[in-house]
Amino acid sequence: MPGGGSAVIAVDAMGGDRGPHVVVEGAVAAARELSVRLLLVGPAAQIQTELQRLRATALPIEVIDAPDVIEMHEHPAMALRKKPGASIVVATRLVREGRAASVVSAGHTGAAMGAAQLVLGRVRGIDRPAIAAVLPTAAGRPVVLLDVGANVDCRPHQLLQFALMGHVYAREVLGITAPRVGLLSNGEEETKGNDATIRAAELLRGAPVLFVGNVEGRDVLAGSVDVAVCDGFVGNVLLKFGEGVALVLREIVRGELRGWRGRLLQLYLAPALGSARRVLKRLDYREYGGAPLLGINGVCVVAHGRSSARAIRNAIRVAVDATAHDLPARIGEAVAETTAVASPGVGASH
Amino acid sequence: MPGGGSAVIAVDAMGGDRGPHVVVEGAVAAARELSVRLLLVGPAAQIQTELQRLRATALPIEVIDAPDVIEMHEHPAMALRKKPGASIVVATRLVREGRAASVVSAGHTGAAMGAAQLVLGRVRGIDRPAIAAVLPTAAGRPVVLLDVGANVDCRPHQLLQFALMGHVYAREVLGITAPRVGLLSNGEEETKGNDATIRAAELLRGAPVLFVGNVEGRDVLAGSVDVAVCDGFVGNVLLKFGEGVALVLREIVRGELRGWRGRLLQLYLAPALGSARRVLKRLDYREYGGAPLLGINGVCVVAHGRSSARAIRNAIRVAVDATAHDLPARIGEAVAETTAVASPGVGASH
User: Could you tell me if the ipTM is greater than 0.90?
Assistant: First the structure.
């Protein structure tokens, strides 16, 4: 195991769609550029070969053998039961055992979430862990949108929990002193919303966060809030619709940029198109440096299966940041000082 | 009242944010270009002045006096009660009295919906009328997304009703023989969805429409379905988020198109930027020619308050099309042949 004072991050080497060599390449870049020590989890011989290929055997990277992989088509809960030796389970267990401070995976998001809950458990007072997407805004600074995971049919106090977790993430990791928290709704007026959001807004008005009220879909990327809270069904449909809008616009611009004059224009426009492409990529929250799973008793970051080595390196940096700020402890404190966070009628939750 | 064999459309002249002159201008364009006769409803003297200014007094346009207007800030239900002489109420009443075949408004959508329900009532078997947005897709042909109105907390059989109405609209007005109907969800698998969509999918599998299953956010604009069904909360948040994505991308491209070289490029790029702008506009469903209110016992079309004269003219054309296909009757037939459309436990609904 690597020594020294820097953070130790367990990386599931078998997550990426492109095979372990991309994940290993990203891990090597992180080990070279960041003050970090890594535990690379997966089939040991294969990972060692990759490390040798990259002349990275002298870096603070230890290989932990794990023979099994959870494939994208598998049902996460069943796969986790059938494959206790899966790389994501072994990697997450390293966090519970104290050998790693956090875990990064570019694999099956459902499996990573399942392993995290199974092995590490939830922060006391959090019913359902959430995935937070950090998105670019027109105002220049990012916005935290959550939940974009799979929490559907959320109850009002669960939306409040998402708000608290988003608040803590924006304050600790993004460094925003008093993050403005908005509740995504179909209108700004207090009367607008569905049953769950109207009751969540009531809870939020009594919560220790800077609640600015309902916000509309267009406010998310306008930068008028730092945290936008929604049910996971809405968050999922939203981000994927955004990708669709971007694709349609790209098709149009492409259609106009044909021929020799079009190609010339493309050269001139390369910076603008490049920026636009980066924004589009960031709508796929897992592609941009990894998304934190919030509400877990430990730091877990998921990246997209298609992640490049650069994206893996960025996800490792997100894990380092989240570890440095001890997010689970900060979320636990925020929950403890918010009475309405418990399920109604249940009293103190855990 | 204008005579002849063409459709008679009542137009609420007081709807537009820009004042009656834009609505009157759009109405005059419609009267000149389409085979249509119009009843322009609002303060008679003001409308007559506009008609004289546009040298349109010889066109088949009759002015119907209505002194009151429902303002954007008013609560629709209360305003409708307080102002029985409001232009939208008078215009809708013309449809009930058989003097007009349909009504077009660029005003307060909530007030138009309220007046339609109050004065014309709902199609038998439809619990909640929906607003359908007709959006452009990457595949070239349009998609009908509904509900984008204000129907929140929809129950499964209500989502089924939306599907039937979208099916009828796509078949009758867009001319698609067997429209592919998808249910918006957070994943394509049958197990994905929230409680309401999972149960709605079961109902849809037994309904007389070509149900292709769950579709994801990005499928809407990809053109993989002809009708996309969702709760009004989701539809609203979705479209407004789409506008936000478009705005962020526009800011980026604008930022790169500064200086003299940028301005030169803008000239070259004008067609592409123009197409993109048209797509963005169409994401605001009311701006693109008006959106039909489906499930009303009569044809009602709403356009955006900011509508240009061109958009008003297009909304009038949508009303002409919907009238020609007798949408309320076709929706009534689709409902009658679908047993699951009734609220569970209620038997036949009306």
Answer: no
